[in-house]
Amino acid sequence: MTAQAPRRSDKTRAAILDAARERFAADGYERATIRAIAADADIDPAMVMRYYGNKEKLFAAAAQFDLRLPDLTSAPRDQVGAMMIRHFVDRWEHDETLMALLRAAVTNEAAAERMRTIFAEQLGPAVAALGVEPAQIPRRAGLAATQVLGVALCRYVLKLPPVVAMSADDLVADLGPTLQRYLTA
Q1: Cα(132)–Cα(138) distance, rounded to whole angstroms?
Q2: Gyration radius of the chain over CA positions
Q3: N or C: which end of the chain has fewer CB within 10 A?
Q4: Does 22 fall in a domain?
Q5: What tens digit of pLDDT does each residue of 6-62 get?
Q6: Cβ of 17: how many Cβ atoms within 10 Å?
Q7: Residue ranges making up the domain that contains 30
Q8: What is the pLDDT of residues 58-72, one digit of tens each?
Q9: Using a CB cutoff of 8 Å and minimum separation of 24, what contacts does 152-158 make?
Q10: CATH classification of the domain holding 42
């Protein structure tokens, strides 16, 4: 049995999503336009509308994001905070999709809801796997999210000079103990 070649529509969808991720990352949700995304994908704007309906639905599709959280249960218990902040710093440094979502979430309720969903669905189970009391999981995951989202906002969006100047190792050293307390105290 031979593998089926990708359909043209699959390539078009992928091109639209790639262009949308880059445009949302560069311009934010509010300033990104269907016309600009279509131009970046080298297609007619009507095709974007055909596949995604509107900008909000396109953003929701483009903002599908796997945090790819590490298995914190495999780390020494006293290192899970450092492991988590290092993971997030690496993700922020190398993936514009999460950055686009963060920028958009600041001004757009749909994007904010998407961010809440991603963190609830992915960070909550990672915290639960550490043996946290079930009633404490949302609180602890929420507090951990405040740290990783706060540092991302200050370092990559607001570009606060002292935070931008910090090395990844400095961020891990300074934020790891706080995350450690949230995750395991």
Answers
A1: 10
A2: 19
A3: N
A4: yes
A5: 577 889 999 999 999 888 877 878 889 999 999 999 999 999 999 999 998 898 888
A6: 20
A7: 8-62
A8: 988 887 778 889 999
A9: 152/88, 152/92, 152/98, 152/99, 152/102, 153/102, 153/106, 155/92, 156/92, 156/99, 156/102, 157/99, 157/102, 157/103, 157/106
A10: 1.10.10.60
